[in-house]
Design brief:
By secondary structure, this protein is mainly beta. The protein has a single domain, classed as OMPT-like (Lipocalin). The protein is built from 1 helix and 15 strands; from the N terminus they run αβββββββββββββββ. Strands 1-3-4-7-8-11-12-13-14-15 form a 10-stranded antiparallel β-barrel. Strands 5-6 form a two-stranded antiparallel sheet. The radius of gyration is 22 Å and the shape is elongated.
């Protein structure tokens, strides 16, 4: 909440000199399509329903930096009202030698075993935004969206093998899935610093705490420049998702963070 308040105060300060309503907004559009290259490092842990000790993505599975993309389609159907959808895939896999014993879906896998691990998911977030402030140089909006985290496959497998210390490891393979719908809300802003070329800054903070189910927070910021009437380029940094879903008897527990730099283009009409 403190971060959201600080963002709101900062944006209000930016907008104070422009409190008079003005026409011909710098970011006037009806449809906007945004696409970004996102260099992410996934960190966190996961645990199958029957297991007690989480498996760490970095220490146990050696998940490392990878390239993915993020996209957004925004329909501004009135001057202050938007419908939009955001999508970000996660597809990471690794072959790794275990440095400790782990248990996945009640199946023990011993230290020294060579495993294959993968995590495949897709985040889709439809939402609505209302711009409580909109002036010629930009806007401050409040958005509400439903984040749908579809973990299509969280898989760990190991072939039958003899480890370096002589331990016999039997063949193990198990895949789990999870569909986690989490509603989130928060502020989003864009402000144009210059007239020509039009250089802008923008940022957002979204989050929600769902008591026994889990919690989610997402924030990011970037700086951009309009290349012509329809195209702009931007670059920034994002804490793409920080998702926590508590495990129960019928779902896996997941603690997932993605963060890293991004570079993108947007096309507006």
């Amino acid at each position: 909440m403190g971060g959201s308040l600080a963002l709101a105060i900062f944006v209000l300060i930016l907008f104070v000199p422009n409190l008079q309503a003005q026409s011909e907004d710098f970011d006037e559009y009806k449809i906007r399509l945004e696409g970004s290259w996102f260099y992410s490092k996934p960190t966190g842990s996961m645990r199958a329903q029957s297991d007690t000790v989480p498996i760490d993505f970095t220490k146990d599975l050696n998940f490392s930096d990878y390239s993915t993309f993020a996209g957004k389609l925004d329909w501004k159907f009135t001057r202050k009202n938007h419908f939009y959808v955001v999508f970000t895939p996660l597809w990471v896999s690794q072959t790794h030698t275990l440095s400790r014993d782990i248990v996945w879906d009640s199946q023990p896998i011993h230290v020294g075993s060579v495993i294959q691990a993968s995590l495949h998911s897709l985040e889709i977030a439809p939402g609505y935004q209302y711009d409580i402030l909109r002036r010629k140089r930009g806007h401050l909006g409040i958005a509400v969206q439903m984040d749908l985290f579809d973990i299509t496959s969280a898989k760990i497998s190991a072939a039958a093998q003899i480890t370096a210390d002589g331990t016999h490891q039997g063949a193990v393979s198990a895949s789990k899935s999870l569909l986690a719908p989490i509603p989130v809300a928060g502020p989003q802003f864009r402000y144009y610093l210059t007239n020509s070329p039009r250089v802008f800054i923008e940022g957002n903070i979204y989050g929600m705490y769902l008591f026994g189910y889990g919690n989610f927070v997402s924030t990011g910021g970037d700086i951009g420049v309009t290349l012509n009437k329809h195209i702009a380029a931007n670059a920034g940094y994002t804490l793409g998702t920080r998702l926590n879903v508590n495990g129960t008897s019928d779902r896996i527990a997941l603690d997932l963070t993605q963060k890293g730099p991004l570079v993108g283009l947007e096309v507006s009409f």
